[in-house]
Amino acid sequence: MEGLKSFFKRKDVEISLKRYGIDALGAMAQGLFASLLMGTIIKTLGQQLSVEALVQMGDYASGVTGPAMAVSIGFALRCPPLVLFSLATVGSAANALGGAGGPLAVLLIAIIAGECGKLISKETPIDILMTPLVTIGVGVALSMACAPAIGTAASSVGQLIMWATELQPFFMGIAVSVIVGIALTLPISSAAICAALGLTGLAGGAALAGCCAQMVGFAVMSYRENKVGGLVSQGIGTSMLQMGNIVKNPKIWIAPILTSAITGPIATCVFKLEMNGAAVYSGMGTCGLTGPIGVYTGWVNQIAEGTKTAITSFDWIGLLLISIVLPAIICLALGEISRQFGLIKEDDLKL
Predict the structure, then answer these.
(1) Strand, helix or coil at 275?
(2) Under a CB-based contact definition with an 8 Å cutoff, are residues 238 and 232 in contact?
(3) 140 in a domain, yes or no?
(4) What is the mean pLDDT of the chain?
(5) Closest by Cα among 50, 59, 88, 56 to 72
């Protein structure tokens, strides 16, 4: 047993929640962002401007979603070059065979294939053959055997959440908004979670509300300490920057969480806000304004499909209120109340 532990340590194979649930998941979100997300944004821009080159560029970017995610995961696992490059094939297979749950399939299978590749790397005199063979062999075999089932399971969970949200938009609006919003601020990936579950529709709208509540909420609430730099870095960057402060004083999280609990059901019950763009947008919030762009993309797709006649003023008002205005007002007010009651002290929110 000691020999095995020593071998794993030498190969930098660390079986831990941090390595797989935080590092790998977070990296996968970046891979998603650099491929599917950017591809969708570029394609939408091209469609609106009638620039065919941008549409094609977007299609190319979206077309490498699986490889991009797998290579990103391999980078987080600190895979050696041959393993890292071989994971492109693994990601392509897992994403294609995983269907709606492709991102989850890529996450699980790329981790296993990557770690197997690391174990064999530089252990034989024909490393240039054996390392890619093991990495690709394990990854593609697992993809063929497991990816469809993983995709079905993930899709079923996502559909259950979306069905429950349609059935009980108020209570599920609160639950989805709060949970996904918390995930966005934690050092895990809300975007990857939403993508893995295929979270769209009303549930996607609630998820967007929760993410915006965290990002815009923290940005506005901490303006006193962080000024314009903090407003921008959190508001269109990430609320994860406050994680260190949350560890020091968890009470600073009360206002953003309550804000998400308020805006979630407003999104689902009042504005019927739906995320009908790519599911990954549901977990992005105002990061680069990609969440609102996802909603807009969904409107454009619905108009093209004939399921929506036009984008109304009510649509725009709802999106603006849920994404920016309400989180800013509500969280700022709750933050001030928290300060008055001593829950937030001076410099508790300073980055």
Answers:
(1) strand
(2) no
(3) yes
(4) 92
(5) 88
